[in-house]
Structure formats: structure tokens, C-alpha cells
Design goal:
Layout: H1 4-7, H2 16-30, H3 39-55, H4 58-67, H5 69-73, E1 75-77, H6 87-96, H7 102-109, E2 121-127, H8 129-134, E3 136-147, E4 162-164, E5 173-180, E6 183-190, E7 199-201, E8 213-224, E9 233-236, E10 252-258, E11 265-267, E12 270-278, H9 279-284, E13 286-291, E14 296-301, E15 310-313, E16 319-320, E17 323-327, E18 330-337, H10 344-355, H11 358-375
Parallel strand pairs: 2-10, 12-18
Antiparallel strand pairs: 1-6, 3-8, 4-7, 5-6, 9-10, 11-12, 13-14, 15-18, 16-17
Helix pairs in contact: 2-3
């Protein structure tokens, strides 16, 4: 059974204001408009919206706390003056979140022969830094359920028969009634003798144990597009487990994780790196070599460049997913390398340079004058 408090990431004693804040945060995170094409996010958004709709209403929350989610799905009739009239409207409001009336959805959800989509599957794929940037084909292995080749999904041995369940008389459901402080509570659940099918198989299939499907490891080749990053999800429609009663197969969701690189750092579609230059290059200016994602280019550093200066190469970043012609930028920061050891000749030249740097001497004097005023 789903825990609505865990879904909304709150404690059971949460206040309405705390509940609202948590819901708004999660709704923004998983909203379909902010996650276009992400079916996992869409399903999560519907789940948290339903949980909030229940817990934000005092009456619904009280029923959920006592009876769980099943209490919300059942029929509740007034008894005497219990004061809980209009429960049908409350349930209708809940189901209207997803469209359609409660009665229609209730009947649809309990049809034993309704087509059911097969379960989805998740696969985690780790990519190297440049595989994620330029795209790659990967082979994945995933366990899914496929139709049993022996019984062809009938769930029974070839030649055997099935008959109507005597417990539920073919409805696939059983009902029970319970008197509660809120009135008479009627609960409808799947029949345990036939597992909700309304039929009992005389001789279940020996190959699949009467399930109509078997688990096998499925191998698929997945084309990873250019520009993916950690957290991206690739959907493989109808490649998951087989559905029931003619329902479509489930999906496979490929979750991407990308390894970091020793030289390049990625932020979104932009690339960052540090490039060392000499003191003389910084002072005099120089043409330096800058590595990009695809080649090495020449770049003119202007004279008087200070350490930490950042330069930009437009369009040399990561391609946008499914927009190969649109790319981010590359930013490189220059770091002036100060040698720890110098030769006698280099030392002599540096001493001479120090004596002929009026700009440096002037800045030093200005700084000392400011210190003197500070402590006077």
C-alpha cells in the first residue's frame, strides 16, 4: 500500500502549511511542463497530486489514517445522523483530478478482462565523459516478462480447461461490510480463489506456473544522443514486460550517469577548464594553445592579462540533446605559473626587472600610504 506521507516527504503529524510547502516543492520538481517527454516525472506528479488532495482535506485524511488507501476506494453509506453525507462528491472530486467520473473509473478499474499495460523496467547506464557529449550506442541487458511460448499466454496447459470461479461467480470480486463510527463501510476486493480473473484453471501451465509469461534477460542496443548528462532518462516504448488481456507492453527507462573528466568540467552545456601561462606571456601577451572538445585552437592572450582572467570560445561547448547545431560555450581561465626555482641568470634578470617596474612601485606606495592612514 502506498504511504501518502512518504510520497509527500512529510511526517504523519505534518501541519497543513508544512504539507502545502512540501507539495509545492515536489509539484514544481516533477511538473510535466518542466519535464517534457519524461513519463516517469509525469507519473510522479500525478501520484503526489493525488496524495496531497487526500491529506489536505481533513475528512479524507482521517479516513486514510484509519483505513488506508482502500478506505478511499470503497463505498461508504450514511447511517443515521453520522454527519458524513456527500462522501460520493468527495470521491468524485478526487478522481476528477485525473479526468472522468469516479463511477466510470471504479467500474473500469474493476473489470477483470480490462487490458493492462505491462510493468516498466529501469536500467542504469554509466557513460564516459566524451561518450555523453558525442553520443554512443550501448547494449543493455534487462529482465522482462515475455509471453510463455508453451501456453501462449493462456496460463494453462494445452488441452486443459477452465471454469467459472464458484466463490465470486465469475465477477472476480468479493465484497465485505463493516459498521464503523462513520457509517457502514463496504469494501470490494479481488477474489483470492481466482486472483480476480473470475475463472479457475484446472491445470496451470507447467512452464510458467500459470502466469502466462516467463522472465528472461533481454538485450537491446540503445542509441544515446549527443549532449546527455547525469539524470537524463531515455524511454524505450513498449520494450518492457508483456501486458495482460491484450494490454500494451511496459516501457524501459534508461537512467544516465556520466563520469567526470580530469581536464574539462561541465556545467549544463558549457565547458570549463584552466590553462597555465607564464608570467612573461601574461605581461607581453602571447598566442597559446587551447584544447576544445574536438581540437586544439590558437588563442591570442592580450598583454597585461592578470591571473584568473576568463576567456570564452562561443559554440565550443556541449551539443544540446536532439539539437546538434546548437551548442554551449567553452570558458577557460588562465593561471599564471610562478617558478619555484630559477637560475642565476634568471634571478639577475628578475632583479633588474623589479627595479624598472614603476607601475608596481607606485601601487606599493599607494597601498602603504593607505595602511599608514588606517593606523594613524
Amino acid at each position: 500500500m502506498r504511504n501518502f506521507y512518504e510520497i509527500l516527504e512529510v511526517e504523519k503529524n505534518v501541519t497543513k502549511e508544512e504539507l502545502k510547502r512540501s507539495y509545492k516543492k515536489l509539484a514544481k520538481k516533477y511538473h510535466p511542463d518542466l519535464n517534457p517527454g519524461d513519463e516517469v516525472a509525469e507519473a510522479k506528479f500525478k501520484e503526489i497530486s493525488y496524495a496531497y488532495e487526500v491529506l489536505a482535506d481533513d475528512e479524507k485524511r482521517q479516513i486514510y489514517d484509519v483505513y488506508g488507501e482502500e478506505g478511499l476506494k470503497g463505498n461508504m453509506g450514511g447511517s443515521g445522523g453520522s454527519g458524513f453525507g456527500g462522501f460520493s462528491d468527495i470521491f468524485d472530486d478526487i478522481f476528477d483530478i485525473f479526468g472522468g467520473s469516479r463511477s466510470n473509473r471504479y467500474e473500469y478499474a474493476n473489470r477483470k478482462d480490462m487490458p493492462k499495460k505491462g510493468p516498466d523496467a529501469r536500467v542504469d547506464v554509466t557513460l564516459d565523459f566524451f561518450e555523453a557529449i558525442f553520443g554512443v550506442e550501448k547494449e543493455i541487458s534487462v529482465k522482462v516478462r515475455e509471453e510463455c511460448s508453451h501456453c501462449h499466454g493462456s496460463k494453462m496447459e494445452p488441452g486443459s480447461e477452465k471454469h467459472t470461479c464458484e466463490t465470486c461467480h465469475g465477477s472476480g470480486q468479493v465484497t465485505s461490510e463493516q459498521n464503523t463510527p462513520f457509517g457502514r463501510f463496504v469494501r470490494t476486493s479481488a477474489c483470492e480463489d481466482c486472483n480476480g480473473t473470475g475463472e479457475v484453471i484446472e491445470e496451470p501451465c507447467k512452464e510458467c506456473g500459470g502466469r502466462g509469461s516467463k522472465v528472461r534477460t533481454k538485450k537491446l542496443k540503445v542509441n544515446i544522443p549527443k549532449g546527455v548528462d547525469t539524470g537524463n532518462i531515455i524511454s524505450l516504448r513498449n520494450q518492457g514486460s508483456v501486458g495482460e488481456n491484450g494490454g500494451e507492453n511496459g516501457d524501459i527507462f534508461v537512467y544516465i550517469r556520466v563520469r567526470s573528466d580530469a581536464v574539462f568540467k561541465r556545467e549544463g552545456n558549457d565547458i570549463y577548464l584552466n590553462i597555465p601561462i607564464s608570467y612573461s606571456d601574461a605581461v607581453l601577451g602571447a598566442k597559446i594553445k587551447v584544447p576544445t572538445l574536438e581540437k586544439i585552437v590558437d588563442y591570442d592572450i592580450p598583454k597585461g592579462t592578470t591571473g584568473g582572467t576568463v576567456f570564452r570560445l562561443k559554440g565550443e561547448g556541449v551539443p544540446y540533446v536532439n539539437r546538434d547545431k546548437q551548442r554551449g560555450d567553452l570558458f577557460f581561465k588562465v593561471e599564471i605559473i610562478i617558478p619555484k626555482k630559477v637560475s642565476d641568470e634568471q634571478r639577475k634578470l628578475l632583479e633588474e626587472l623589479r627595479e624598472t617596474e614603476p607601475e608596481v612601485a607606485e601601487n606599493k606606495k599607494s597601498f602603504l600610504d593607505k595602511l599608514k592612514k588606517l593606523f594613524d
